[in-house]
Amino acid sequence: MKPLSIVILAAGLGSRMKSELPKPLHKIGGKPMLEHVLQSARTLNPTKLVVVFGHRGEALKEAFSDADDITWAEQKTFEGTGDAMRYALPYCVPESNVLVLYGDTPLINPNTLTELVGKLESTDLAWLTATMENPFGYGRIIRDHNDHMISIIEEKDANATEKAICEINTGIFATTFTFLYNALPKLTNQNQQNEYYLTDIAGIAVDESINIETISEDPERIRGVNDRIQLAELEAYYQREKAKELMRNGITLDKPETLTIKGTVQNGFDCHIEANVVLEGHIVLGKNVHIGTGCVLTDVVIGDNTEIKPYTVMIGASVGKNASVGPFARIREKSQIMDETRIGNFVETKNTHLGHGSKASHLTYLGDAEIGEHVNVGAGVITCNYDGVNKFKTTINNGAFIGSNSSLVAPVSIGVDATVAAGTVVAKDVADHALALNTIEAKRISDWERPAKKKS
């Protein structure tokens, strides 16, 4: 099998985006468009992966500084895609097959790319096309009377007859290094844009009696992005397809069109997601998980039969089986909420372990805490974990009861089956089975008259 060089053209200015961010770094599904393209390219195991950069190129390189498999080729002149390829070709493997992709066409199907490269077993050039009801803006595929592809005409160079053609050029093609090496010097800029069109190699191939093999793709998969309207349209398509995947995998979606996915989802059977939910990063759902309206979940693991109630925000956390979280809860990084627990409304946790059967039902902050099993944390409880410089740990042992509006000043430990009375400030450890309470009694004044508003 011949080695494979993949070239991704990503040097365009993207002026219509009206942005200081390089166009390939604008996101679809929470990831830069270029990252989507790289992900598809890597499935083909290329020998060489070349990205052509130009405008704002340093920002592009910085965004992928950890990707050691990328060879960066700088385009120093900007005279079209043919010009860009001249900068990329020296980095390609001689005698390899060459696949050309684009940094602003993020949703290309890897299986289609594999099929396209496979066509080079019988020819030197294979082209990806698509058929659109409204092909405006795209180059058209020109075929002869035998239905063989013979050239591509750009929209700005096409006459009325050619503009009526609905088969369009995706710009994506596979060829051999040798043919590409010989064809590039033959490109000219005799067109409306005075640019060197890489697509003109199709005509060169025909002149050399090379048959151009073609594959047709779903037009939604090959759409490029030139402005923020097209970005939004592509995002909508991406989300629709991701929602379909989840439903095929056994998740009920109340409003599929309102779900936003910015990562991957792994799920058991019979999960249920209500409207306006956002799933980011890597999400793992057990069986029969219910996620309420308006939840935002990022990098979380949720156990079987657990309910995440509406408008809960979770990030970098895990919840066990048969638990309930929310509504309006915030579960932050390194929180471990164990089986059969309850987190209620307006409760926030951070770097906290909440043991089996424990509950914090409302209006509570639990930060840097180790909480045992069957602990009851009352409303308004705070673990005071930060002294302005350092953070400290609070330990609440099994069976403890923490009364409402108590403040636990860390570092502090509450013993097994200990009780903290409501409104108590605890700055020292509480022994097992002990009661901690503040001894200041409330002052009572008889016959108190409330202040009255003065009449104007």
Q: Please give the count of helices.
A: 8
How many structural units, i.e. domains? Answer: 2
How is the biggest beta sheet arranged? 23 strands, parallel
- CATH domain class of the largest domain: Alpha Beta
Mean pLDDT over all positions:
96
Termini Cα gap: 94 Å
Number of strands: 37
Strand-residue proportion: 25-35%
Main features:
UDP N-Acetylglucosamine Acyltransferase, domain 1, 23-stranded parallel beta sheet, 456 residues, 8 helices, 2 domains, 16% helix, 7-stranded mixed beta sheet, alpha/beta, Spore Coat Polysaccharide Biosynthesis Protein SpsA, Chain A
Describe the protein's architecture and organization.
This protein is of the alpha/beta class and 456 residues long. The chain has two domains: 4-222, Spore Coat Polysaccharide Biosynthesis Protein SpsA, Chain A (Alpha-Beta Complex); 243-436, 3 Solenoid (UDP N-Acetylglucosamine Acyltransferase, domain 1), CATH 2.160.10. It is built from eight helices and 37 strands. The strands form five sheets. It has a 23-stranded parallel beta sheet that branches. Strands 5-4-1-6-10-7-11 form a seven-stranded mixed beta sheet, with helices on both faces. Strand 2 and strand 3 form a beta hairpin. The radius of gyration is 31 Å and the shape is elongated. The model has no long low-confidence stretch (mean pLDDT 96).
